């Protein structure tokens, strides 16, 4: 359900910047409304990381990327019947870690494929939250798979 709000409501929010959506963004919004809960515009990648990994530093790194890039802090709202970009002044994304270390190698690989597929198919909510999701699959003490899922807006 699309929430229609007024300009006054937007500007009462502290430091939220609101701009008209581009034609390309309007097209993506239309398709998202036409076929809700679809993963058509998900851009997913799995990266194998080898070596010691500092989870806190990894999460801080992605949050620094989000801090530096407004597009990753952008959601969409209808304002007086017009689609607008709402850019949050800050946003913290969680790094979800899933421990698969207790599984056998065969079970781990099967689980990795299953979880990567699920994440790639999980739709984004364009009106709330982040348009980037980060999941770490822990295989061994020095082997990890990083799943990145980004909405192509």
From TrEMBL:
Domain of life: Bacteria
Domain Condensation: 19-152
Pfam families tied to this protein: Condensation (PF00668)
A GO molecular-function descriptor: phosphopantetheine binding
Gene3D superfamilies noted in UniProt: Chloramphenicol acetyltransferase-like domain
Any GO BP: secondary metabolite biosynthetic process
InterPro entries the UniProt entry points to: CAT-like_dom_sf (IPR023213), Condensation_dom (IPR001242)
Cellular component per GO, a single term: cytoplasm
PANTHER family given in the database record: FATTY ACID SYNTHASE (PTHR45527:SF1), NONRIBOSOMAL PEPTIDE SYNTHETASE (PTHR45527)
Protein name: Condensation domain-containing protein
Organism for this UniProt entry: Aerosakkonema funiforme FACHB-1375
